[in-house]
Amino acid sequence: MATYTTLLRLPLYIILWVFAGVLLILTSVRLNYTLHLPRGDPLNGGVDFFDPIVAHLLVCSLLALATIPFVMRWVPQPITSAASANLFELTALSVIWLLWLVGCAVSTSVWPNLAFCYQFAACRVLAAMMAFAWLGWIVLVGLIVLAVLNAVAKARPARAPIMVEWASQPGSARFGASGGRARDLYVV
């Protein structure tokens, strides 16, 4: 089971990275447009503004782009324990998932139907932005499921010694190797 989750994680993280990059570009284009409205633009009476939810989606995409290299261990990290790395991955994915969900839900409630304005480029940018936001959220759901499956697959067999991974030092003797003394179980 662990090999399947490993084989699926890399493509999903690459897809998330692409979706987050596209979302970053689309939110930047939308912010640039609304903060620099051309003269005579009927949107908001020609007065510059910005949509807070677009800024929120921009931050979500930046967080995803910044977190993926750490989760995939492309950047060296001080976490050496596999349990801690799984906890870091689940925590990071959960936070990004929640922020991304809020961004998708609010943007969908602000712009529920954009079919009436597809003739305008700004409207097409909004529609694409919302589409990539929802696609990224779906990929995040898949990554969280795989991260949970990966953590469950690393559970110890029933007959394994009862010792947590972070309780032993790297290279220290396991239970039974040194005669089974009780003090060997709690090496910190």
Name the helicity range: 55-70%
Counting DSSP E segments of at least 2 residues, the number of strands comes to 0
Distance between the termini: 31 Å
Task: Give the percentage of residues in beta strands.
Answer: under 5%
Shape label: elongated
Structural class: mainly alpha
What is the typical, i.e. mean, pLDDT? 81
Outline the biggest β-sheet: none
Radius of gyration over all CA atoms, rounded: 23 Å
- Could you give the order of the helices and strands? HHHH
- Contiguous runs where pLDDT drops below 50 for at least 5 residues: 180-188
The helix tally amounts to 4
Short description:
By secondary structure, this protein is an all-alpha fold. 62% of the residues lie in helices and 0% in strands. α1 (2-35) runs antiparallel to α4 (121-153) and α2 packs antiparallel against α3 (82-110).
Describe this entry's structure for a reader.
- By secondary structure, the chain is mostly helical.
- Helix content is 62%, strand content 0%.
- It contains 4 helices and no strands.
- It has helices at residues 2-35, 52-71, 82-110, 121-153.
- The two termini are 31 Å apart.
Itemize the secondary structure elements and their pairings.
Blueprint: H1 2-35, H2 52-71, H3 82-110, H4 121-153
Helix pairs in contact: 1-2, 1-4, 2-3, 3-4
